Amino acid sequence: MSFRIWMMLLGMMLFIVRTVWVYFGPVWVIAPIAIACFFIFVPKWHAERGGNSKHGDEGKRYMELGALRKAEVEFMNAAASAIRPITKAQILVQLGECQRRQKKFMEAEESVREGMTALEKAKKTVTVPYAACLEKLGNIERDRENLSEAIQLFRQSLDVLSNVKDVDPREVASKQCALAISESEAGDRANFIPDLERALQACEESLGDESPECSALVVALGAAYTHGHAYSQAIPVLERAVVAQRILYGHNDMRSAESLYQLGIACQRTGEIEKATTNFEHLLKLHESHLGSDPRDTAYVYMRLAEVYADGGRPTLAADFARRTITLLESNGHGGEQLAEAFDRLAQLWDDAGQAASAVQYRDKATAVREAAMTPSSGS
């Protein structure tokens, strides 16, 4: 329609509104407008709310069951129907977490950044959801082993929360936890132990001693003591972590693998061989009961068992696990220092048994593995 017709229609509408207002009162003008708005906007809000609730709840349920692909589809549907920027960002963060767990790091980053863009357009950058987006990006970079970028993102997340009024202390604690653990993994010794201790205190106060965040912090703190050779400090911290994780996840969950490994090392270094053996044996059962475990991780457990069996005067078992290490690594095409150490362990066992000739053979094999690892491949 032309501009003139539009103006005529607008004039007629204003004339009708004025006439009704004058002769029947304002109620007869306001009420129809309110009813029209109700029927236009409420169905849209209800559709968004209902769709988000249905798909979002299904996505969370699938996440808890470990059905990550189905969860991803549900979160995608929920994000597609979201209208409000904050709602959309919250769903996209959940979608990003689902994709991160599937190691789809590029898709996860795209999802989270889409949520951040929605918040930036709505000028909602000083909000808890925006801080959650930064934290999730930090988790993605941490999984990619880009620890310096992860640390920077976690700090930005905390900076955002510092400007949010009446923020839930649990939100701050989770970000402090992520920052401290990343600093410990990056070996930033000037910061990570104080940050770990502060984050742990905040977690205990706001989330409780048995929360997953506290458990992760306790493991990181124990590992930090172990890496710093403070084994006597590490043992009680890591024992606490093992107990907490068993309460949280049960006795056969791989999330307790790191604490068992670090506790075994600390006990071995302090001469508590029986305790070290018990922890490494339990860790081996975890690896053997979970399909898809990285062979190199299992090989590390084999080698630790070979060491503690040797330290405990059980050379036959020690040799058996050293051979298992070699077989596992060679059958999966893994060489390098890990394989060389297994040959060295066998050589030492033969030395201890007085079999010098056999020891020399295994040391020669270790040397050959190291030389092969240092030699550039023909395709490079």
Characterise this structure:
- Helix content is 81%, strand content 0%.
- Residues 42-51 have low confidence and may be disordered.
- It has 17 helices and no strands.
- By secondary structure, the protein is an all-alpha fold.
- Terminal CA distance reads 69 Å
Query: How many beta-strand elements?
Result: 0
Number of helices: 17
Low-pLDDT residue spans? 42-51
N-to-C SSE series?
HHHHHHHHHHHHHHHHH
**Strand content bin:** under 5%
Helix content: over 70%
Mean pLDDT: 80
Shape: elongated
Q: Biggest sheet: strands, sense, closure?
A: none
Estimated structural class: mainly alpha
Radius of gyration: 30 Å
Topology:
Elements: H1 3-24, H2 27-65, H3 68-81, H4 85-101, H5 105-121, H6 128-143, H7 147-162, H8 169-186, H9 192-206, H10 212-227, H11 231-249, H12 257-269, H13 273-289, H14 295-311, H15 315-331, H16 336-352, H17 356-374
